[in-house]
Model the fold of this input.
Amino acid sequence: MEHDVIRLAERVITREPERRPEAKWIQQRVDRLAAAAGLKSRAETDRLIYEKMYARAPKKTDTTKIRYWRTGYHLPAGREEALAFAGVLQLDQSETAWFLQACMEKSDLVFESAPEEECPFYSLYKERTALMEAMISQYIESVPPSRMFQLDLSYEKLEAFVRHLYCIDALDGTAFALSSTKKEIVRNHLSSSNYESEFLRIRRLLGEIPRRTMLRQIFLLSLPYLNRRLMDERLLRLGYLPLTEGHTSQRGALVDDLVIGLLKQYEASCKGRDPLTCRHWMFEQLSILDQYFLERKKEEYRFLYFRILSTMEGYTL
Amino acid sequence: MIEYELEYLKWKRRQLALRQNYADTPPGLSGEQADEEERLLNLAWKEYGEKRRFRLTTGVKISEEPFVGRKAELEKIRSLFAEGAGTVFLSGMGELENRRLPGYLGEDMQTPTTGSCCGIMTGV
Done:
């Protein structure tokens, strides 16, 4: 029997554009700069951009990376370089936000450490971390006692096991959930310890957190109380681009379209059902999807998978 | 010692609140559906209460260590129960072993306790 999610996955892959629309958007901004500067060739424009960014004339191959950015093969390496590039392209505030959030798939702001009270972004940081904590509290509240019993974890110390539960949930949403070794891994709380500092960093919203990571975070922490409206609202409040039809990831995958389609199917299949049934339905579909993308080597679409999962004791695929 | 039936009911109560908060999500509830769910849950709570009415709810053990003092307090508690108090609240500074005190009331009284510095006891 073919699953609806498989049809969704096939549809999404078929619709993948040859070139990222976000890359075309960047090209248009480069062309606008060239027209304003009266430059005829793209090579001249690349040279101008390089000179403005690094305040020196490029050597022979230095402009290659500018060409790659312009054509969408690569993107600037980090936030600093991206902002310098945006500055040279004379992007206004909303364009810069689009460049960071849609093209680079980053948040509007990054906090290297928790800001002091005097910092202008202090209240914003507090608001965002409060949202993250609220999501984690809700996540804890949603864990049924039977689940802790199955995992052989103490229900009284639920808070202490949040990281492990999160990793197990992520595993449940991957092809690993369909494998026969699953039961071995889930009982060992320490097997997710490699993810401890990273989980804490994301929880405190410190450092650069890619949109893909935040998408996974919101998705897992919110289940089963999840829909498009909530995903959009939470992404926005945390400074990210909301789910957007046609938006492509850095490697050109239509992950947003996949998530939007999946949420629609969730709504249609589970409306009015109890939380555990909803949760079960979603994880079943997620693992089927993950298996499909794994077999087709479409790693970009495995949005619940992250590398540390494969280092957990007992993981085999 | 965790009591799963109680924890399950508490969990159901939290889920009901979440289902009402997120009424527009698939497990969400509103209106009559929410009322009905609440009615069923209240029924389950009532049944649970009936079942547990005359049972020890936590494992209070009589200490094998010698117990010195607190005679006046123990007498007071006994007399309160004798007067017909269904529930007696104990409160005091932390670390004074308030939770252990009920254990010395004697085996004729079953004494469930909760809390870190106060005990709730039900006379049987």
Summary: The interface with chain B takes residues 138, 141-142, 144-146, 149, 154-156, 224-227, 229-230, 266-267, 269-275, 277-278 of chain A (CB under 8 Å). Residues 212 and 303 of chain A are 7 Å apart (CA to CA).
